[in-house]
Design goal:
By secondary structure, this protein is of the alpha+beta class. It has 2 helices and 10 strands, in the order H-E-E-E-E-E-E-E-E-E-E-H.
Length: 180
């Protein structure tokens, strides 16, 4: 047997072993997916990080709902991103796996106000609130924090430290011209 065929057979055997381990570990059917611990599991993220003033930011919230304890159709997300503004409509997708429903929402944000200028410690956004209704009980609210938004300057620190700054500022109006 040639060396190339031996290596190919070894690679194929390794791939089969990996596939069998994954099937044994994760289960071959979606019905085996475990539900989240408790009623709901919430995760949030912001990209990119850090970002420049005026950049678009994607805020991503994923909510895993245990369908044995909550009705996923009653789940509502309430997000306030002040001082950021929402750009367009949120994009939501849902999928089921076993006893778990995954609700995935993406928001596109932008901030063009002074509150979004670079500052130490970043910007803290208001908490995400997830409202849900158990089968026969009153409304339940879960709070989840967003990561801090780190805004960085487009101007280097060395340029800001020079006096006067290395850029020019025109304060006078140009001379009037009557030529046609």
């Amino acid at each position: 047997m040639s060396r190339a065929r031996l290596l190919s057979a070894a690679g194929l055997a390794a791939a089969v072993v990996v596939a069998l381990v994954l099937v044994a570990t994760l289960g071959g059917r979606g019905e085996d997916a475990p539900p989240p611990r408790g009623d709901v599991a919430i995760s949030t993220s912001l990209t990119p990080s850090p970002l420049f003033f005026g950049d678009l930011v994607t805020a991503h919230a994923e909510v895993l709902v245990n369908r044995e304890q909550l009705d996923p159709d009653t789940v509502r997300l309430e997000a306030d991103f002040a001082p950021f503004s929402l750009v367009g409509r949120p994009q939501e997708s849902r999928s089921d796996s076993g006893r778990t429903t995954s609700i995935d929402v993406r928001y596109t944000l932008q901030c063009l106000v002074e509150a979004c200028l670079p500052k130490p410690g970043g910007i803290e956004l208001p908490k995400l609130q997830v409202h849900a209704r158990p089968s026969t009980d009153n409304l339940v609210t879960y709070d989840q924090t967003w990561p801090r938004v780190d805004v960085v300057s487009r101007v280097e620190d060395a340029a800001l430290a020079t006096d006067p700054p290395p850029w020019r500022q025109q304060l006078a109006l140009p001379a009037v011209s009557y030529r046609l």
